Give the backbone structure.
Amino acid sequence: QVHLVDSGGGSVQAGGSLRLSCAASGYDVQKYCMAWFRQGPGKEREEVASITSVNTTRYKDSVKGRFTISKEHAKNILYLQMNNLEPEDTAMYYCAATFWVEYCPTSLGYFRSWGQGTQVTVSS
């Protein structure tokens, strides 16, 4: 059974940085596509970044150059390094897992396992 635990959120001022972590059990983070999603107040959940089994990455346009998704196989953890944070980045952030390998799905519905979420709040 796949179990994901998100952590690392917090409150920062604009321009600050945070690193989110997603610890996985019952699942090998290196073998499959994983992603980070976020959901702001009154908004739909959206993909922020994804990474395949061969470390091909994809980013939402508004976070390109500021966010970096990565995996640490030895610790079985997925990360999201977030730099130069903006108030518009305020949201609950969730990691998600699939059993897709060399490609990541474009539809949220294919991500079957989710972390519990970690709140990121950016003040201006």
Observations:
- The first strand starts at residue 3 and ends at 7.
